[in-house]
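Teaching assistant's notes for section 4

Start the section by putting this record on the projector. Ask students to predict, before seeing the second block, whether Aspartate aminotransferase family protein will look compact or extended. Collect guesses on the board.
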Amino acid sequence: MLPEYGRSTQDLLAELAALKAGDLPVRGGKVTAYVYDTGRPEIHDAAHRAYAEMLEVNMLDPTAFPSMVAIEKQVVGAVADLLGRPGAPGVFTSGGTESIMLAVKAARDAGPGVREIVLPVTAHPAFHKAAHYLGMTVVPVPVDPVTFKATAAAVEAALTDRTALVVASAPSYPQGVIDPVAEIATVASSRGVPCHVDACVGGWLLPWLREAGADVPPFDLSVPGVTSISCDLHKFGYAPKGASVLLFSDPALRRKAYFASAAWPGYTIINATVQSSRSAGPLGGAWATLQSLGREGYLELGRTTLEATRRLVKGVGTIPGLRVLGEPESSLVAIAGSAEVDVFVLADEARKLGWFLQPQLSYAGIPANLHITVTGVTLAGVDALLDVISAAAEAARLKGPATVPDGLAELIAGLDLDALDDATFTELAASVGIDLSGPEGASEGTAQPEMAIVNAVLDALPAPTREAVLVRFLSVMYG
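Reveal the predicted structure now:
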C-alpha cells in the first residue's frame, strides 16, 4: 500500500529486514541452490558498490551512456577470452534464460521457416520457455540412463529440415555432467544447423576446474560447429544477480539476436536484449567482481570447489540408502534415495537443521533426487554438510516416505484446473494436508514449509499437470 506521507530510510530498511527474516540465507553455504558465495565478503562488497554506482545508468541507449559500452566490452571480452574465442562478439544479458532466449531467436531468424529445437531431456527449461515465446517446437531426445549424457546418435536421429538449433549442456543442471559437445556439434554442422552450448552454469567454472586438475572435455567456442554459448556470471562468476553473457561464433549471428524498430514517430529502437530500458547496475557489479577476483582468485575458488565436490561425492557414497547419480564433471551433485530413504522427506529434515537441499522430481526415467550446488564457500562446511545429510537420511528412514493418498494423483490429473478459482484450489490443497493459506504455505508451529508431501504429489503427476498445478500455486501465493 502507498503511505499517505513519505517514510524515513531508517524505517524502510527496518521493514525490509523484518520481511527478509524468513528468507533463506544468501551467505555461508547452507543454501545449496539459487545463491553463490565466494566466502570473501570484500568481493561482494566491491560488487555492491559498483552496482549502486551504475544503478541509474540506462542501457537503453548506448550513445547516451558510453560508460556502459566500455564496461560491457570488457566483461564480454573476458568471457570470450576464457571460452575459446578471444574477440568473439557477444551480448550482456540479465541471466541464463535471456541469453538462451536470444540464442534461440538468433537461430530462428538465421534460418527462416525452421522452427524446431533439438535438445536433451536434461536441457534447461529456459529452452522450452524460449520456444513458447518465439513460436517454436521442442524436440526432446533421451539421455543415457547411466551417464545421463546426450548422445550424438540420438541428436542426429531427431534432426529434420525444420531444425533451427541443436543444444548441448556443459554441464546439464540436473546431474552436473557434460554432454559430448564436440560430437553433437559435428552432427549439427554436417546438417548446416547452429549448435548452442548451454554453459550458463559451467561457462565460468569448468575452465578453472580444468586448471585445478579436473578432466574437462572441450565444450566452448573452440569446438568446431559450436555457434553460440551462454555463460552466467551471477553463478560461478559470483557477480550479483542479473549478469550473463551470450557469445556468438560470428557477428552476423549476433545481429540476428538484435531487435530494431523505426516504424513509429518516436525515438528509434535498437535493443541487444529482450529488455529495452534496463539498469546498468548488474553490469557494474559483474565488472567489479571479475576485476576484484582476477585469474588467481578464480583459480583458487576452482581448487576449493573441486576439492569440496570430491569430498561430498565420496562422503555421500558412505551413507546407507543414498547414491550420487552419474559422475559429476562440474560441481553440481544429484543425490538419489532408495525405498528406505525418501529424498523429499530428507530435504525437509535437512531444512529443520538449517540447510536447504533442492528437490528434483523424477522425469524421463531419471529418479527423484536432491541437487547440491558446490560453491567457493562449501569446502569450509563440507563436513558439516555431510553430517546433516547423514542425520537427515536417518531421520527420513525412521519417518518413512511421504505417501500420496490413493487416487489423488488421478483425481488431480483429471481436473480442469483452469475452471477452479484460487480459493477452491486452496481448499483442495488443504484437504490433502497442504496449507497454502499461511506465509509460504508454512505448517502451523514451524518457520519452514513441509514440502515432502507437495513434492510427492507433484512427482506422481505427468509433467503437463505438474506445470498446471505450479501455475495455480504461484497464483495463490501472490493473491
